[in-house]
């Protein structure tokens, strides 16, 4: 009887192991799917471009040329500065609508000031539909050109992020520092991932950039010269990401384009690690 009991126990143990293995094989595709949903990576190509209202270093206003530059690098998101909307100097052309059509991207304009019979400001272009765009004023001299940040809400592969374009003060370091502090207050908070790009008019070692680096990951790890376009000798254009530890820099480059604008465009490829299948708030 003792040996029969041993055989019975061994048989039950074998069946239990076999059943557990079979159950694991049935569940493992679901588990893998859940892991992919809750821990995935989004890779984005982001371009920052000050287009000088379409005027190149040859003195010609040519939106076709600018659109070709943008199209050539197949960006997911583009932050554009110095944009004209229906101004006399540009023949009353809606530059955002024109660039959006020519690049097959969605486009939104962020008005900064009234200018020359129309408007002047910045824009966002995106492969993905732009749900909304808000304009926030930054500290500045009310007598001169006011500075803004245009913030777009965009849904990318079930993840909602904010993509911002800005153009900081060109001559006063004290105003750039105040503007950087305000950008931190407005955007570097909460759990929603944020990308900000634009013409910061600041050198990498400046106090304004140090203020931003306290909250953001700058997508260029060394100085990458973007201005002046014909013979660049300093970096004024940047892409930065928040939260800093959620992003990885894949690569970054300054495009070899000396004519289409007085700035060269900055292209970065970055990755966002998402940890939830639900949308960030």
TrEMBL record:
<dbReference type="InterPro" id="IPR005135">
    <property type="entry name" value="Endo/exonuclease/phosphatase"/>
</dbReference>
<protein>
    <submittedName>
        <fullName>Probable secreted protein</fullName>
    </submittedName>
</protein>
<dbReference type="GO" id="GO:0016020">
    <property type="term" value="C:membrane"/>
</dbReference>
<dbReference type="GO" id="GO:0006506">
    <property type="term" value="P:GPI anchor biosynthetic process"/>
</dbReference>
<dbReference type="Pfam" id="PF03372">
    <property type="entry name" value="Exo_endo_phos"/>
</dbReference>
<dbReference type="InterPro" id="IPR051916">
    <property type="entry name" value="GPI-anchor_lipid_remodeler"/>
</dbReference>
<feature type="domain" description="Endonuclease/exonuclease/phosphatase">
    <location>
        <begin position="47"/>
        <end position="263"/>
    </location>
</feature>
<dbReference type="InterPro" id="IPR036691">
    <property type="entry name" value="Endo/exonu/phosph_ase_sf"/>
</dbReference>
<dbReference type="GO" id="GO:0003824">
    <property type="term" value="F:catalytic activity"/>
</dbReference>
């Amino acid at each position: 009887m003792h040996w029969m009991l041993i055989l019975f126990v061994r048989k039950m143990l074998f069946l239990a192991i076999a059943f557990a293995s079979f159950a694991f094989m049935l569940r493992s595709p679901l588990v893998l799917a859940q892991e992919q949903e809750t821990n995935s990576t989004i890779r984005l190509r982001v371009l920052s471009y000050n287009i000088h209202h379409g005027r190149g270093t040859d003195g010609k206003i040519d939106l076709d040329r600018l659109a070709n530059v943008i199209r050539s690098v197949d960006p997911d998101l583009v932050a554009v500065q110095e944009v004209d909307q229906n101004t006399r100097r540009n023949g009353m052309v809606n530059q955002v609508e024109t660039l959006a059509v020519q690049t097959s991207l969605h486009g939104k304009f962020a008005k900064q000031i009234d200018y020359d019979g129309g408007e002047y400001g910045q824009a966002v272009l995106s492969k993905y539909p732009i749900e909304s765009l808000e304009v926030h004023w930054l500290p500045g001299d009310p007598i001169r050109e006011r500075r803004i940040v245009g913030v777009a809400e965009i849904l990318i592969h079930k993840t909602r992020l904010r993509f911002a374009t800005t153009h900081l003060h060109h001559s006063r370091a004290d105003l750039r520092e105040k503007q950087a502090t305000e950008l931190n207050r407005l955007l570097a908070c909460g759990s929603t991932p944020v990308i900000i790009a634009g013409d910061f008019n600041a050198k990498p070692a400046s106090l304004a950039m140090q203020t931003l680096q306290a909250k953001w990951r700058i997508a260029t790890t060394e100085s990458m010269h973007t201005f002046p376009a014909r013979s660049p000798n300093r970096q004024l254009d940047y892409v930065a990401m928040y939260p800093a530890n959620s992003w990885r820099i894949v690569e970054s480059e300054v495009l070899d384009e000396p004519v289409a604008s007085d700035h060269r465009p900055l292209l970065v490829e970055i990755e966002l690690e998402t940890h939830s299948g639900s949308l960030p708030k």
